[in-house]
Amino acid sequence: MKVVAELTIGNPKLPKWSSIHSHISGLGLDDNGKAKPIASGLVGQVEAREACGVIVELIKEGKLGGKGILFAGPSGTGKTALAVAIAKELGEDTPFVSINASEIISAENKTEIMTQAFRRAIGIRMKEVRKIISGVVSELKYIKKSSPFLPQPVLGGARLALETKSDKREFTVGPEVASQLQSFGIRKGDLIMIDAETGEVRRLGRVKERSSFAFDIDTERQVEMPDGKVQTSREIVRTFTLHDIDLSIAAQRAAFTIFGFLSQERGIDDEVRRQTDEMVKKTTQENKAQLVPGILFIDDAHMLDIEAYSYLTKAMESEYAPIIILATNRGITTIRGTDEKAPHGMPRDLLDRLLIILTKPYSQDEIMNIIKIRSDELDVPLTEGALNLLTKIGLERSLRYALQLLDPAKIFSMRRNSIKVDESDVENASKLFSDVKESTTFLEKYKELMIK
Ligand SMILES: Nc1ncnc2c1ncn2[C@@H]1O[C@H](COP(=O)(O)OP(=O)(O)OP(=O)(O)O)[C@@H](O)[C@H]1O
Ligand SMILES: [Mg+2]
User: Fold this and answer.
1) Domain of 231, in residue numbers
2) Is the Cβ atom of 386 under 6 angstroms away from ligand 1?
3) For residue 374, which ligand has an atom nearest its CA?
């Protein structure tokens, strides 16, 4: 398909999560969608995890576009953690965009940043037929040529013969392909694949009957001699986001105007987006591409203002809309930009469109298990006493505070030349670093002296 060949853009990537959630690898559900007590780095929060499992299933069936979910629960109950788990379950092919409401609020152009987030959260899966050359190397000779700049000859290309069970072809390749063959150490007997359009070389393994030595333990991938033709066409599936296509069209346009930099400064205008939408509509109608609604996750959503909320409500109903997941730890609070109080600080017409998932505070056991998982992840071995003390801190003060003490406590244990963190290390760490409650009380006490 022509359109794809013109685009020089890659797959949507998962967002980079801050390391406080690095222990999470998925939702930890069984085949029936039931939450295992401790799995994939997650502990407890059973109903919420199972609800997330339903969301993942609906997304995979393409059934949830334009819907909204709200995670509501106290701080430290795993709302952001669950969003990370959903992203991990969906894999790289489904776009997942994560943004904090504060990024939207502080942006110069709120509508623009929200529009971009929406469009990055919608994927287009395109099938593309590419010419591929693939076979087992039966001859390989590098061609050297003299260089006007260097005393010694340089790589000028290579002559290459590729074989399958029923076919053999010879090729002369240019220096770009030849240097890849050389750097991968390709030799006779290797099964390779070359993308005829981009010249990209991939080594797929080594053919069994060509190996002159058989090793008991061999790291090389052994493959069968392939069937079929050396030169073939293969279908490749790639996913782009609407935003990727917007960028690509905007760049192409800029290249055609003398004052290219001016249009680049202006960014992506409505006309570009209209053109993208038209192209997407056409290719999906012709069954050449498939729409993949992804997820737009807005953390700390109560920070949005009335303007952002009305954009959100409207955009959720537009033709191409991702699934919106919002998270908040606020109960009844003022809707920003108004004097009105409302549940979660959100306008009624938005709330009415949301499915709500509650995250509840953890039990003592669950807190202990989360601390254990994090101490493993951070490589901070704990004595039983230290684990009990941290659990108590997690229960009485906050889970996040207990988790944050792990790294500083390790410093204290290292100063004692101990490989394990014990109670005294935790106590020392908590003496130096306060939690939010403590720092707020402190500021209240010294109110008159602090800058207002
Ligand atoms: N069920 C869980 N299993 C394992 N780790 C968890 C779980 N819930 C929370 N955590 C971990 O505890 C810490 C706090 O959780 P998280 O940041 O997700 O809370 P939150 O509900 O988003 O809080 P806030 O409202 O303050 O944003 C994180 O490091 C998170 O990865
Ligand atoms: Mg959070």
Assistant:
1) 128-237
2) no
3) 1
